[in-house]
């Protein structure tokens, strides 16, 4: 829920720009390999429109992302650390499009926040060359060994897209097809344990993932959007 709350200011900005839109539409979005969601677009001038969407990253998209990580040669230990967390996430997006005819080019920003997930302590120890016993037990907690640590990670992406609109004759419906490519511009990641103080390990984890995302998180996407025009356009 927290990623959704943090995205609300972005959508308030979006709706302030589109409140006086010449044309507007709502969308149901199926985008591979990221998410399924809903969106809104408002055309604010003859050629320019502003849009936003929010959706859920679930299987099979989450499985595709993990497979893509393995395909590009990601260390298997990193994949195993992230595997559980990447089973569910929230994706928020803002985009600005230049429209010409039934085509459009756009630029967009995305926030991808995944749920807290468990990672095996054994895998974490292997990757970071450390031991669980190296970290102090929290006051009032038992000093027994844990099987798992909990991780959270959030990615910030920026990208470009090209789309084409296919109007359905005689109705307010259309189908849009989009191709996009985004690159990572930042991230925040955290690792924590119920029983042990992992502050230093969490900092290493955050630095490691931030470097990894910036190097490898180039995400191509293909989207199909089912659109209903609230204010129908001319084409």
Structure, described:
The chain is α+β, with helices and mostly antiparallel strands and about 240 residues long. The protein has a domain of about 160 residues: Porin (Beta Barrel). It is about 25% helix and about 45% strand. It has five helices and nine strands. It has an eight-stranded antiparallel barrel with strand order 1-2-3-4-5-7-8-9, surrounded by four helices. Helix 3 packs antiparallel against helix 4. The radius of gyration is 21 Å and the shape is elongated. The relative contact order is 0.17.
Topology:
Elements: H1 2-18, E1 23-32, E2 35-43, E3 48-57, H2 61-71, H3 76-82, E4 89-100, E5 103-114, E6 117-120, H4 121-128, E7 148-167, E8 173-192, H5 199-216, E9 219-229
Antiparallel strand pairs: 1-2, 1-9, 2-3, 3-4, 4-5, 5-7, 6-7, 7-8, 8-9
Helix pairs in contact: 3-4
């Amino acid at each position: 829920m927290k990623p959704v709350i943090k995205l609300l200011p972005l959508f308030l900005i979006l709706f302030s720009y589109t409140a006086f839109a010449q044309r507007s539409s709502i969308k149901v979005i199926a985008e591979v390999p990221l998410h399924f969601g809903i969106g809104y677009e408002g055309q604010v001038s003859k050629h320019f429109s502003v849009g936003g969407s929010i959706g859920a990253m679930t299987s099979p998209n989450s499985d595709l992302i993990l497979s893509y990580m393995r395909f590009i040669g990601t260390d298997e230990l990193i994949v195993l650390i992230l595997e559980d967390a990447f089973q569910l996430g929230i994706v928020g997006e803002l985009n600005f499009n230049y429209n010409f005819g039934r085509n459009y080019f756009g630029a967009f920003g995305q926030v991808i926040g995944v749920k807290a997930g468990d990672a095996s302590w054994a895998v974490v120890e292997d990757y970071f060359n450390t031991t669980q016993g190296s970290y102090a037990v929290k006051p009032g907690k038992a000093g027994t060994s844990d099987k798992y640590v909990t991780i959270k990670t959030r990615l910030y992406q920026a990208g470009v897209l090209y789309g084409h609109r296919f109007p359905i004759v005689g109705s307010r419906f259309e189908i849009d097809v989009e191709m996009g490519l985004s690159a990572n511009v930042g991230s925040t990641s955290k690792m924590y344990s119920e029983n042990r103080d992992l502050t230093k390990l969490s900092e290493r984890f955050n630095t490691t993932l931030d470097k990894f995302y910036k190097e490898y998180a180039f995400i191509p996407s293909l989207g199909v959007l089912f659109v209903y025009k609230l204010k129908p356009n001319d084409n």
